[in-house]
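Table 4 source record.
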Amino acid sequence: MLRLENLAKLYGLKVVFKGVSCRFTAGSITLLAGGNGAGKSTLLRIIAGLSRPSAGEVVFDGLQLDISRYDSIKIIACGSSYHVGMVGKYNLEKLVRIPVEVVLASEFRYCDPIIDSRTLVVVISQSGETLDTMAALRRYFTGQSMQTAIAAMPFRSAKKYGGVSFHEDETYLLGAPEILLAACPEKDRFLPQAEEWSAKGCRVLLLALYDGKLDDEALTAEMMPLALILLSNKIRPEAPQTFAYFAQQGVRTKVISGDNAMAVSEVAKRAGIKGAESYVDARTLETDEDIAAAVSFFADERASFVTGQVLTCDGGFIL
């Protein structure tokens, strides 16, 4: 998302434009129209970082980048990401006229580069190439906080997400993708990716930039998904043997969890709980009739001694 906030540009006493505010989102098409001298080219130069506005701000993906603060740029990458960095070097030097150096992450961690407060460091990584890149990051970024949170909200089961705000325009949320993306226009683009990993037994969290407040009762403001975080569920080697022994002794195993129903079902199957592929997601139980049907379903299963049904509860209100 690109956001222009109350931009103005003056050359001496001449006002090129003032009070320009708008937003651009991924996939959108915007027409910039105006006569000669209306300031169209000047506005584009400001967006590209080639010129500074006289007033206002340009915010890109929630980050403010004033290219005039830097004298050099270093891009750290390896593998195919290194070649992406080389493309970035050619384009950045052409657009912003600042020297750009692309360094292999495996070499960067051993060298003694000249980096100061006027050096912009860009790190590129992708799956399978993170070892050297992460080592380079740890070498030069020691964990000192560069920002101070102005508000934080711990993860709560009732909401299934938590968050932190660093300033009024930078709020991040971390939680269940199906909750955070519920009102997001791009839900159909991102949610299937999360569900794919949940079906494989991973706990999936979504990190998103939220254009609202942490204490919003409903997440109705604009949401920008940033990353999916995958957490594996470790199963003890002796778990299948243990559950098999329970079954032999007539013990029926039921799983109640507040996590994603698909993920819990897959983990239960791996653990050797029979019938774990059959589950009820309590978030889908909207009426008393739905709840009664779910209770009846499990009562029937108990009567027929079918083991290992999985019931997930949002708030733990059923059973």
